[in-house]
Specification:
The complex is a heterodimer.
Chain A lengths: L1 E5 L5 E3 L19 H11 L7 E5 L4 E4 L3 E7 L5 E2 L2 E2 L6 E3 L4 E3 L8 E6 L29 E2 L6 H4 L16 E6 L8 H7 L4 E3 L7 E5 L12 E2 L4 E4 L5 E4 L6 E2 L2 E6 L1 H7 L7 E6 L1
Parallel strand pairs in A: 12-20
Antiparallel strand pairs in A: 1-4, 1-11, 2-3, 3-10, 4-9, 5-8, 5-10, 6-7, 6-9, 12-19, 13-14, 13-20, 14-17, 15-18, 16-17, 16-19
Chain B lengths: L5 E4 L4 E5 L6 H18 L3 E6 L3 E6 L5 H9 L13 E8 L8 H8 L3 H9 L3 E6 L6 E4 L14 E4 L3 E5 L2 E4 L4 E3 L2 E5 L20 E7 L1 H12 L7 E3 L3
Parallel strand pairs in B: 5-13
Antiparallel strand pairs in B: 1-2, 2-4, 3-4, 5-14, 6-7, 6-13, 8-11, 9-10, 9-12
Classes of the chains: A mainly beta, B alpha+beta.
Chain lengths: 281, 241
């Protein structure tokens, strides 16, 4: 097991998402940066759908009560194990009593911690992903205890690490496709939408990233219709809301663009004040 | 009626099927007919089908090519009469006592109606469940009496209780879980609208109908106790036009 000594800012358990319940108004959820989350599992030889810990801005402090192997990917935190720095994107062996800390991220904002065999939290409606109203908790707090798989000696012996191209965290362009209401915008609005550098607002979270700086752009509301992670809504206020993994299933704002999967992962690592620009694929 | 919808890609694994943009039972019947036909013909390719007022999104498995699938959809024969999904009319007991109906008095003053008249007008219609969205299990309902239309509150409450029954603009709805909100609260149901432990977590599904039934505070407590013990029998019957 793993004891949570400090919960961090918004630490939660995620897998690749909860599918099959969107018609009941249930968001898909899943890891915000699915590339990094997937990488942490691959380093350990886990299954793609195994649950990982998503760490946001300020990491948790964790104490292991059993031996296992971990891998941390994603944002550039400076994790320490028993106060000794450990590398990212590498398998690390941990023992009972060992304490893992994260520090602050130098680049990106979301890191992923995988453990051998995955986190064994409540599996509800086909997913481990935390979501308020579906799982008992939305994020971890001190005192929580996390169940993990028992280690098998055969797997424990191998080591592995990967080199990550850090420039992916500095990408400013977000690859997009046209959304259902793109053609309803004037040509000048369409042009401005995919050439403006917009600023990530501090009001950004797992549900949506708010982008500001599309001066003069606006769109009328639509009759409430389906949306999905990556849908870019242009609001009458002139801001864009880019829906993320915990997005509602339907929405009433014009769906002007749709991010690619890779662009969602890129945006998920941005922090307030960062600049991004949509780029039509 | 049979309108040919527009069928377009919506993201890498999605297809959007859209009818003329209007909120009407006629258009919505087409939406549900397409939902039923898609689920019936391609269940093994489908991850999610999300209906709304005049459109539905179909999300397919990773290995399905969206362009190829759109060609299949364009050849699909859709008939309104062959729905395999049974629709129910579900009675939702609501306590309109001012303990829960926090905005009932204000609404009665604004509408120049007695609170009893408001309750009467709110419990009279059979509401259609168009779709679920906004929150898990939150029903978008059609059929609110236009005399009860009322703008959202200027400042949203930081918390609306689970089970709150409210009016926002031309819509009425039930909050399946506590959340912030600006709708005018008329009362509260002791029923659980969304239970993640159930195989079908939402109490109502798109295409169902609901009726509100006014209950006393005492009845609210009785039903709430039964709901907690999972011994409350939901009042529901098969809906026929």
């Amino acid at each position: 097991m793993i004891e949570v000594l400090s919960g961090g800012m918004y630490t939660n358990i995620q897998d690749m998402g909860r599918f099959g319940y969107r018609s009941q108004g249930v968001p898909v959820s899943g890891a915000m940066d699915q590339f990094s989350a997937g990488l942490s599992n691959r380093l350990l030889g886990n299954a793609e759908g195994d649950a990982v810990l998503e760490i946001t801005h300020i990491g948790p402090v964790l104490r292991f009560t059993q031996s296992t192997v971990i891998a941390i990917t994603g944002a550039g935190f400076s994790p320490t194990y028993n106060d000794v720095e450990i590398p990212l994107n590498t398998r690390v062996h941990v023992r009972p009593g060992g304490v893992l800390k994260f520090g602050l991220p130098g680049y990106g904002i979301r890191a992923y911690l995988a453990v051998l065999g995955g986190f064994q939290s409540d599996y509800i409606m086909g997913s481990y992903s935390f979501y308020e109203g579906v799982t008992p908790k939305a994020s971890l707090s001190s005192g929580d205890v996390l169940r993990i798989s028992e280690i098998t000696s055969a797997k424990e012996k191998t080591t592995a690490s990967v080199k990550i191209d850090r420039t992916v965290f500095e990408r400013r362009y977000l690859e997009v496709l046209k959304g259902p209401e793109f053609d309803q915008l004037s040509t000048s609005f369409q042009e401005a939408l995919v050439t403006t550098f917009a600023t990530v607002s501090s009001k950004s979270n797992r549900m949506a990233y708010l982008l500001e700086g599309f001066h003069g752009l606006t769109a009328t509301e639509i009759i409430t219709a389906p949306v999905q992670p990556g849908t870019v809504q242009l609001m009458p206020s002139g801001h864009c809301a880019v829906l993320m993994r915990d997005a509602q299933t339907t929405g009433g704002y014009a769906r002007v663009l749709q991010l690619t999967e890779s662009a969602i992962n890129t945006l998920a690592q941005k922090r307030a004040g960062d600049e991004v620009c949509f780029k039509l694929k | 009626m049979n309108i040919a919808p527009s069928i377009r890609p919506f993201g890498k694994h999605g297809i959007l099927i859209s009818f003329p943009p209007e909120i009407s039972q006629e258009v919505h019947r087409e939406v549900l007919a397409w939902r039923d036909a898609v689920l019936h013909s391609f269940s093994e390719k489908i991850v999610d089908v999300v209906p709304a007022y005049h459109s539905l999104a179909v999300f397919v498995n990773d290995h399905v090519n969206v362009e190829t699938f759109i060609a299949l959809l364009k050849d699909l024969s859709v008939s309104e009469t062959e729905s395999a999904i049974t629709n129910y009319c579900i009675t939702i007991p609501v306590c309109y006592d001012e303990t829960f109906g926090l905005d009932l008095k204000e609404l009665s003053e604004a509408k120049k109606m007695t609170m009893e008249q408001i309750i009467q007008k709110h419990t009279a219609p059979t509401y259609q469940v168009y779709f679920l969205g906004f929150l898990p299990g939150f029903p978008y309902l059609g059929g609110l009496d236009p005399q009860l239309f009322h703008p959202r509150k200027p400042t949203a409450r930081s918390q609306i209780d689970q089970g709150a029954v409210a009016i926002g603009g031309g819509q009425t709805g039930i909050y399946p879980m506590a959340c912030p909100g600006g709708w005018n609260i008329l009362g509260k149901t002791p029923l659980v609208m969304f239970d993640p432990k159930k195989a079908i977590p939402s109490l109502v599904t798109p295409g169902d109908y609901i009726k509100f039934r006014s209950i006393s505070l005492k009845e609210f407590e009785t039903i709430a106790a039964k709901v907690a013990k999972r011994s409350y029998n939901i009042e529901k019957e098969v809906y026929r036009d």
